[in-house]
Automatic annotation (TrEMBL):
Keyword Transit peptide recorded: no
InterPro entries (alphabetical): ABM_dom, Dimeric_a/b-barrel
Gene Ontology MF terms: monooxygenase activity
Biological source species: Terasakiispira papahanaumokuakeensis
Keywords: Monooxygenase, Oxidoreductase
Protein name as annotated: Antibiotic biosynthesis monooxygenase
Record Pfam families: ABM
Biological classification of the source: Bacteria, Pseudomonadati, Pseudomonadota, Gammaproteobacteria, Oceanospirillales
Domain ABM: 4-60
SUPFAM superfamilies: Dimeric alpha+beta barrel
Length: 104
């Protein structure tokens, strides 16, 4: 499954500032059982808007990680909290099949 959220960077803070904190937190979160990777994307028309996508084996494993957050992860995330607004977009099932071009 994929958990997707949108990040709005406040004036005076940059996407690069947020990305540094995001990488630090993601490295720790990705050690949790069921974590399959993350990606952070910048909006093409508005560099203050980012899209984060975290991939998990299952929603249950992601929820288990959220239920027992690491103190270090909370501390890292709190560093960026005053400078951005995070809007969860939700949890999405992976499709049963995916069609991709042959060169991928």
């Amino acid at each position: 499954m994929k958990y997707i959220f949108e990040v709005h960077i406040k004036p005076g803070y940059s996407a690069e500032d947020y990305a540094a904190v995001w990488v630090e937190a993601s490295q720790r979160i990705q050690q949790a059982p069921g974590a399959l990777g993350t990606a952070l994307h910048r909006h093409m028309d508005d560099p203050s808007v980012l899209l984060a996508i975290a991939q998990w084996e299952s929603r249950a494993l992601r929820d288990a990680m959220e239920a027992q957050p690491q103190d270090e992860v909370k501390r890292i995330i709190q560093k960026a909290a005053p400078f951005c607004e995070i809007r969860p977009l939700g949890a999405f099932d992976d499709p049963e099949w995916v069609v991709m071009p042959p060169d991928h």
